[in-house]
Specification:
single chain; globular
Length: 237
Amino acid sequence: MNQDRICILSHPDCCLFVVCDGMGGSDHGERASETLVNHITEWWDNNINRICDILSFNDIIDGIRQCITETSNYIWETTRENEFCGSTIAALLVKNDNYGIIWAGDSRIYEIHKRLFGLDVKQLTVDDVWENKAENIARKTESEIRSDKNYGHLTNAIGIRKSVALNIRTGTVAAGTLFALMSDGIYKYINRNDFNKCMQTALHEDVNNSIRLIKEIVDRNGAPDNYSIILVAESKQ
């Protein structure tokens, strides 16, 4: 069962990109990711033409945040007792010179820029995992952290509890920016050097060819069927 879902929603003045990854250990991860994409798409279709020109960028971000929060509550409330249904989410809104990201879980968003030599690759999201909580790793060595049974376990996701804590970050889109949204089925099966080479291809040649190369690499490295990636190239004159 493929538990990943993506959506790309566009308007003349703004675009929204979403990657959701149903949690592999859940009973109905595919239902959570599907519900998220459906609710976000419905919100966009019903609201974006009305609000895009009259509301501020931050107000639109807040509207998306509210939609995701309400969807998380809906998934929680409609999941039967003794069942577990959840999904990660990484969402990117781009409007003119501004971007905003909303995430929960360990799906990631990267921001990539050309440098004189090589690339500047920055992970904008922070994985919601056990080892990224300071109280969990206090006074532990790196070896102890990596060998802990909780290492890599998600601490936050959509639909897994009554309320969700969403992470939000905003910034300015620079000329030539490339954004990469992906589930863990991508970044866990491609090393940094190969990833950077693929991003070079996206920036200098062709985005579709870059995605093809990434797919070849992660498949060769034994990635599961569940993986998703969206590349967003911002071109400015």
